[in-house]
């Protein structure tokens, strides 16, 4: 009986540590204000091509017209931290963070544009 209880405690601790690591990673990208977004483009080998960067900047300008501040970051997946392991991201995936956490998740820039156009 004690072995089972000990095993459950260890599993609970390991699960809690994993969730904490993911939460800390998300907090790294969250914004401090309600009307602010942070676009994070994750990549394997090289930052996105000029066309994608231009599209992201266009979304930033669109949001500014709606009084929503936006920040864009290009983040290597396998840099200091393994974002694939912590956030489950893939090459060319874009996460958009707000003050609560992850707001949008897109693997296609055109899908993300559609999501951004829906913001009131």
TrEMBL record:
Name of the protein: Lipoprotein
Provenance organism: Halobacillus litoralis
């Amino acid at each position: 009986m004690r072995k089972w209880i000990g095993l459950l405690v260890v599993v609970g601790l390991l699960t809690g540590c994993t969730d904490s690591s993911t939460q800390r990673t998300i907090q790294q990208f969250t914004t401090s204000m309600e009307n602010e977004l942070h676009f994070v483009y994750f990549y394997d080998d090289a930052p996105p091509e000029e066309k994608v960067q231009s599209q992201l900047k266009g979304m930033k300008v669109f949001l500014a017209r709606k009084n929503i501040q936006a920040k864009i970051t290009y983040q290597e997946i396998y840099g200091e931290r393994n974002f694939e392991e912590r956030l489950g991201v893939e090459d060319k995936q874009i996460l958009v963070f707000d003050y609560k956490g992850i707001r949008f998740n897109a693997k296609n820039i055109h899908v993300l544009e559609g999501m951004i156009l829906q913001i009131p």
